[in-house]
Write a structure and sequence with these properties.
This is Thymidylate kinase. It comes from Nonomuraea purpurea. One of its GO terms (molecular function) is dTMP kinase activity. The protein is an alpha/beta fold and 204 residues long. It has one domain: 3-Layer(aba) Sandwich (Rossmann fold), CATH 3.40.50. 55% of the residues lie in helices and 13% in strands. A five-stranded parallel sheet has the order 2-3-1-4-5, sandwiched between helices. Helix 1 crosses helix 9 and helix 4 crosses helix 7. The radius of gyration is 16 Å and the shape is globular. The two termini are 14 Å apart. The chain binds adenosine-5'-triphosphate and ligand LXEULUCI.
């Protein structure tokens, strides 16, 4: 028995933390046993990465986030998938392809570091216009130094440029503009896509 692994990435303020619980509930209603999680994880390495992003930079943050990812996969994600759970993860490898590159680490290094990480069955990529994200982050408050300069433009651009790299690296992606959907409509669109994917997987 193997579950389904769905990840959600996108620039700060695109609505990942807003959507994940709603998506989890919608998928539970559709009959899946959902396991919600996030990266950095809530384990010791993940807490260090999340709480001390100001202290760790460049290669050290890239390696800390990757170490947390491999531990998270081994201890939480793979066991849940083996129990047939649908694992929904807030941020995964695509976030490293963007944030670590913004932090000065070459993309090729980040790709090689993350090459052994299990590929998701579906990588949802949220986007939105930079001016909208900047306004959302001003209103909500920033979570990390990556959001402090008040300009989401470079992060949005890097995600946009990732499409071919993610395809080459084996990430089946589904892109959604959260500026054009309410959280409820976004959840509906992602649920529809995930259900179609699941039916295809079961038919194979
Ligand atoms: N689809 C949407 N439409 C309108 N507003 C939204 C939408 N999704 C999220 N928001 C609002 O945008 C703000 C940022 O959302 P949220 O914190 O979920 O983003 P995030 O992607 O998790 O950010 P971060 O990466 O910084 O943690 C929140 O105030 C939320 O209410
Ligand atoms: C998965 C991942 C995370 N990070 C860093 C970036 C932020 O400082 C936090 C995540 O906080 P948020 O509330 O989800 O925005 O972790 C990173 O640098 N690289 C990654 O791959």
């Amino acid at each position: 028995m193997s579950g389904l692994f769905i990840t959600v990435d996108g620039p700060g303020g695109t609505g990942k933390s807003t959507l994940l619980p709603l998506l989890g509930t919608a998928l539970e209603t559709a009959g899946h046993h959902v396991h919600l999680t996030r990266e950095p994880s809530d384990g010791p390495l993940g807490r260090a990465a999340r709480e001390r992003t100001s202290d760790f930079h460049g290669l050290s943050l890239a390696c800390l986030v990757a170490a947390d990812r491999f531990h998270h996969l081994a201890e939480e994600i793979q066991p849940a998938l083996a129990r047939g759970r649908l694992v929904l993860c807030d941020r995964y490898v695509p976030s490293s392809y963007v944030l670590q590159v913004l932090d000065g680490v070459p993309l090729e290094y980040v790709r090689r570091l993350n090459a052994p990480a299990r590929r998701p069955d579906l990588a949802v990529l949220l986007t939105a216009a930079p001016h909208l994200l900047d306004a959302r982050l001003r209103e909500r408050g920033t979570h990390s130094r990556f959001e402090h300069d008040g300009s989401s433009g470079p992060e949005v651009r890097l995600y946009d440029e990732l499409a071919s790299v993610l395809a080459e690296d084996g990430f089946p992606t589904f892109k959604l503009d959260s500026g054009e959907f309410s959280p409820q409509a976004a959840v509906q669109a992602i649920t529809c896509h995930a259900s179609a994917l699941l039916s295809r997987n079961q038919a194979e």
